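Hey, quick one: can you model this chain's 3D structure?
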Amino acid sequence: MKLGAFSDRLSGHCGFLFTELPLPERFAAAAKVGFRAVEHPNLFATPAREVAGWLERAGVPLVQTGFPAGDAAKGEKGFAALPDKVAYYRSTIAPTLDYVAQLGCRMVHPMAGIRPAGAEPARLWDTYLDNLAFAADAAKARGMTVIVEPIGPGSIADYVIDDPLNAVEAIRAIDRDNVKLLFDAYHCVCLGHDPAALIRAHAPLIAHVQIADDPGRHEPGTGTIAFEPIFKALEAVGYAGFIGCEYHPAAGTEAGLGWMRAASA
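Sure thing. Here's the predicted structure for all 265 residues.
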């Protein structure tokens, strides 16, 4: 496996990697081992000025983060598609964008949420489109992009936007030029799609890419996914962003970085 043009465009997902360290130390640890950017879904417990300091000292940008997604321990995975959470969801948009702007981050992901039992799919879909457009319009005024990540049932059961084709449909339906796709090769493969083919088919919509191997969602090289065709497809379509490494290290973060050194050689 060779990273080719992406050898210096890897982003360390610090919600998955370096979890053996306190959060304030993770960005610097990522930079030290060769990641050129970082990402994290939920930094709001810490004042923005502190997080900005972590990033500045580490010398890496934060390429993407998320809107508040609720309490995972209670089964909450976002609110964008939930009709009874519209007011709460919308109340988080402006404060989150203000917070994220202080970090220099330009991409934010509003998680769709878990499908409530007995919920009417059409109502969830319409709510999602309205809320996605609401976030996009607020982000547009700040020069930011809203990203949509489909998450399959193997990772989150009953997640509303559970397939890349659903995400593409939503992005096209609301027709905002600052709404793009977060393309996760792991979710794509788990759903039975050919990631290289989807990249070629939907390249203009892709703003960010993430990778992990399958099975196990560990580092590349531990499973069965062929990553080289994915990297070649991204290079062929002119993808200019980062590759987010969103995987659970099989035996500790640094112990599992051999793939990165070998692929960059």
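One thing worth noting: DSSP finds nine helices and eight strands in the chain.
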